[in-house]
Design brief:
This protein is α/β, with parallel strands linked by helices. It is built from eleven helices and 13 strands. The strands form two sheets. Strands 1, 2, 3, 4, 5, 12 and 13 form a seven-stranded mixed beta sheet that branches. The protein has a six-stranded parallel beta sheet with strand order 8-7-6-9-10-11, sandwiched between helices. The radius of gyration is 19 Å and the shape is globular.
């Protein structure tokens, strides 16, 4: 056990209600990384809870004691983690959690929503674009489908099973592709007449960026959330592609424009209210005492949607 943290200037102390497991949590647990506090450490990025104390200056961010909040505000070097009963977090990273969003749903949203939001924004997705999202039933992918639809795109997604095809379609995907049954060249020909997609968003975190290059049109946009591997960039060169690497923890790690993440979560709350955005939660149930089991469940590949950890409900 550790002492309850005290909020510093611009911070608020949050009594946690729930959090969720993200792949970065598992990676940081398995191997020391420069982005995390030295192990043993409290991990966890996603915050869903209630403000119980304000640090000096925190009230300028329109947060008050008793407010329910959510955001991606922990788990990296220099800050606490959300796998805890309490976390002291920068108020700029937080948004009031809407009353119509439960604490578990709120915990599932922040990291994946900000990641999808930034990827689509950087790729300049606009009305009428053909957007291919790899991993449409995954954490980032299921949010990216919905946000791309909000932007007016025609959304295509690759998934691995008929069950996930139905999930993606229910979330708003216009076309689903079971990549186990059809190759890249075939679905590019069928879906785009061989021209390629305007934007390809690889939300899987896998290492096969070349398939994304293959599916993208000349002078198109490719978004990836993982780039820590070697890849042949020949197709990217010959097609004049633009590659956008999204690592949403940068704002928190380097204290850069943290207000933007709080604002994204405010806008996301409005989309939830309008019925245009909803998180997909895995059917599992874990408490803080079960955090190791929650990690194992994510690592097994059997989870569908976000794995939420209940802390105080």
């Amino acid at each position: 056990e550790v002492a309850i943290p005290q909020p510093g200037p611009g911070e608020v102390l949050i009594k946690m209600a729930a959090t969720s497991v993200n792949p970065i949590d598992i990676k940081c647990r398995l191997a020391p990384r420069p982005i995390t506090n030295d192990l043993p450490a409290i991990l966890g990025c996603d915050v869903s809870g209630t403000v119980v104390k304000l640090g000096s200056g925190a009230s300028s961010h329109a947060l008050r004691e008793g407010d329910r909040v959510y955001g991606c505000a922990g788990g990296v070097r220099g800050v606490g983690g959300s796998y805890a009963q309490y976390i002291s977090a920068d108020a700029r990273l937080l948004s009031p959690a809407p009353d119509f969003l439960g604490v578990r749903e709120a915990a599932a949203m922040p990291l994946v929503t900000i990641t999808a939001w930034e990827g689509l924004e950087r790729a300049g997705v606009k009305e009428g674009d053909k957007v291919l999202i790899h991993g449409g039933a995954g954490g980032v992918g299921h949010i990216a489908i919905q946000l791309a639809k909000v932007r007016g795109a025609e959304v295509f997604t690759t998934v691995s099973s008929p069950v996930k095809e139905k999930i993606a379609a229910d979330l708003g995907a216009d076309h689903t592709i079971n990549y186990r049954n059809v190759g890249v060249a075939d679905y590019v020909n069928e879906m785009t007449g061989g021209a390629g997609f305007d934007v390809v968003f690889d939300a899987t975190g896998g290492g096969n960026i070349c398939s994304s290059f293959e599916a993208t049109k000349v002078n198109g946009q490719v978004v990836t959330i993982v780039s820590q591997y070697e890849a042949d960039l020949s197709q990217m060169h010959f097609k004049g592609l633009s590659l956008h690497v999204v690592f949403m923890l940068i704002n928190m790690l380097h204290n850069l424009n943290r207000e933007k993440h709080g604002q994204i979560m405010r806008e996301a709350a409005q989309l939830v209210h309008e019925g245009k955005l909803r998180p997909l939660l895995d059917q599992s149930n874990f408490s803080l005492d079960d955090i190791a089991d929650a990690h194992r469940h994510v690592e097994s590949g059997k989870a569908t949607g976000k794995v939420v950890v209940d802390i105080d409900v």
